[in-house]
Amino acid sequence: MTLRPLHRFSLFAILALALVVPALADDVRLDIRSGASSRLPLKLTAFTPAGDRDAGATSVQADEVLAADLRNSGAFTVARAWEAGGAAAAASAQAEVGGKWTQRGSTIRLTGEVRELPGRQVILTKEYSGPAARWRDVVHRFADDIVLQFTGELGVSATRIAFIVQDGRTKELWVMDADGHDPRPLTADRSVAQSPAWSPDGSLLIFTSYRGGGGPQLWVLSPEARKPFLLSGRPGLNTGGAYSPDGTGVLCTLGIDGNAELYRLDARGGSPQRLTTHRGIDTSPCWSPTGREIAFTSDRSGVPQVHVMDADGGNLRRLTYDVSYTDSPAWSPRGDRLAFVVRTDGGFDIWTCRSDGTNTTRIVAGGSNENPRWSPDGRHVVFSSDRDGKRSLWVSDLDGASPRKLDTGGRKAMSPAWSPRSGATSSR
Fold first, then answer.
1. Do residue 106 and residue 200 come from a single domain?
2. Is residue 12 part of a domain?
3. What is the pTM (predicted TM-score) of this model?
4. 18-27, long-range: CB within 8 Å, 24+ apart, which pairs?
5. Number of domain units in the chain
6. Helix (H) or strand (E) run with residue 164 in it
7. How far apart are CA 198 and CA 424, in angstroms?
């Protein structure tokens, strides 16, 4: 790589029944939260195909995947130079993206290049390769490096999203690429799976399942091996699993004491440590990025509300007071905000607030929107919604733009969980 100086309601319902022009690359940073108008205009030129006869066809597909990746990053507006009117749309572009696409046998090689405009000085050039069967991964990696060049943080195109698919009375665990490509099942239990969550390195998924005909238990599986292992099958409830940021512990709700209380287990499901003691229902726990605090839902104040406590269970406090009935907290990987749902007459809206509970802001409304989960860069929130009539998965870029729908093949999809970057694809 060459860089030039230019550089849900889930569980609770169940339990209750800077834009800077790129003149100095080291200083280029984008703040997408200031609005869609802050996105950097990019001009995309078509990849030059080389090698086998099929290279021309796959390069055209690669052009479109790259354009979608960059647009969906939340950092750029994208003008496709190969489209009618593309040249006019690219007139305001501040950088140009292109490269060479070589396909030989079962291998793809991409030589990606980014130039500043109008001077056309090269500010990024890098080669990528991979199996032809996974050519999209090669494009995703280039897109993520382009985001890194202009924002200082790697993009998330090469990540995955786990989710639940409901078919009749059954709910199975599925996974797909972050752009909605290649949705595929991980379980086929003909039972009910719920609430998936990734391990910090992206190698494992923890989820709740009624497989085997018993009550809710916590299971763990590798998305590649697809063989579930029992983590906690204690009497009563075993739900809401969430790995600690260092991977050594698991938060969950257990019912072994006759009430829904929060516990910490070790990574193998042993050494239970009780964290809450209250006759109310405590559920939906999530860690802060530092592992020092825990957010969760409790009805101890009369109705479900998001609360926060220290990792040892101390210093417990309610998070917000200016919205009623809150649930499904999710801590931003940046540590500065939490997302959660707020009940409305029509279902749920998605809100965020600072980690101290101030600056509550509604980010998604319309229909019933549930289970918000952050992307690993903290720029996006994936959630489930029935806003177009059928429950499916959507992404908000948090910049005022309308949420975009992920294609799950028409399946009824819910309870998404965004993978960390390190567990993006098995071929990386």
1. no
2. no
3. 0.90
4. 21/94, 22/94, 22/95, 22/116, 22/123, 22/150, 23/116, 25/123, 25/149
5. 2
6. strand 160-167
7. 11
Where helices occur in 230-320 by DSSP H, the ranges are none
Strands (DSSP E) along 48-157, which ranges?
48-51, 76-80, 95-104, 107-116, 122-131
Segments of the chain scoring below 70 in pLDDT: 1-37, 423-428
Give domain status of residue 313, yes or no: yes
Measured CA distances, 66 to 45, 61, 112, 136, 273 (Å):
11, 9, 11, 9, 47
Which domain does 140 fall in, by range?
2-7+18-151
Cα separation, 100 vs 341, in Å, equals 45
* pLDDT tens digits along 315-346: 999 999 988 899 999 999 999 999 999 999 88
Which distant-in-sequence residues (6+ apart) come within 8 Å of 403 by Cβ?
364, 383, 385, 387, 394, 395, 396
Per the DSSP assignment, residues forming a β-bridge with 228 are none
Q: Which of 284, 252, 292 is nearest to 269 (CA)?
A: 252
Q: What is the spatial distance between Cα 244 and Cα 248, in angstroms, rounded to a whole number?
A: 6
Biggest alpha carbon–alpha carbon distance for the chain: 69
User: In this structure, what DSSP letter does residue 374 have?
Assistant: E
